[in-house]
Amino acid sequence: MDYERAIKFPVQERDWIAKVAVGSLIGLVPVVNFAQQGYALEVLRRVAYGEAEELPAWDQFGRYFVKGLGVALAAAIWSLPALFIFIVALIMGRAAGLFVALGVLIVFVYTVAVVVAFPAAMMRYALTDRWGAMLELSAILGWVGANAGRYITVLVIGLVIMLVAGVVGSILLFVGAIVTSFWATVTFGHLLGQLSREAPMR
After folding, report:
1. Given CB 3.0 to 4.6 Å as the disulfide criterion, which of 67, 91, 139, 169 pairs with 177?
2. Residues 60-76: pLDDT tens digits?
3. Is the pTM of this model over 0.85?
4. Contacts by 158-164 with C-beta closer than 8 Å and gap 24+?
């Protein structure tokens, strides 16, 4: 894994300012900002397949938007069990408060599991171009289990990058925040692309 390359690649081409500016502004618009995630998936795909490691042009905005919307929908489906458990715990909690506490604990553990596993689902989507690939839990969890060390390391590095981006963005105020947020998104996409290339999904 080349972490330095992932961090630097968004600013290493001639037209990076325009591409980053467009991506940052898109992030400000509710719903439209789904395109940012789709854009990061394109970065992931290009890196995974050894294509040009540069920021994609924004000439396929519709495709990026649909991809990002697909990710949001899959994330919502992954979250349904937690919502169901929480509702049941609230209903049962009328009889015994212990059910609420137990339900909250289960929801918390499940949510952490989803946060950890869902990036692998996005990787599968980017590589196969099939929305349903994000719901193939056996394949996703099997890959995560087989590559747990490298995968968790990438997630931790990605989290650190996002935290640093947040701190720098807060220092640079509004404009800086939207730019660093976009930078963190595409950098994480690059990291997942590198991991996909090193440990291909079956």
Report:
1. 169
2. 999 999 999 999 999 99
3. yes
4. 158/119, 158/187, 158/188, 158/191, 158/192, 161/7, 161/187, 161/188, 162/188
pLDDT in tens, 66-118: 999 999 999 999 999 888 887 877 777 665 666 677 778 888 898 999 999 99
* DSSP secondary structure string for all residues of the chain: --HHHHHHGGGSSTTHHHHHHHHHHHTTSTTTTHHHHHHHHHHHHHHHTT---SPPPSTTHHHHHHHHHHHHHHHHHHHHHHHHHHHHHHHHTTT-HHHHHHHHHHHHHHHHHHHHHHHHHHHHHHHH--GGGGG-HHHHHHHHHHTHHHHHHHHHHHHHHHHHHHHHHHHSHHHHHHHHHHHHHHHHHHHHHHHHHHS---
What are the structure tokens assigned to 147, written together? 């590559």
Q: How far apart are CA 129 and CA 78, in angstroms?
A: 19
- Listed in sequence order, the residues at least 6 apart from 54 whose beta carbon sits closer than 8 Å to its beta carbon are 9, 12, 13
CA distances from residue 159 to 9, 32, 49, 106, 184 in whole angstroms, order as listed = 18, 24, 24, 23, 9
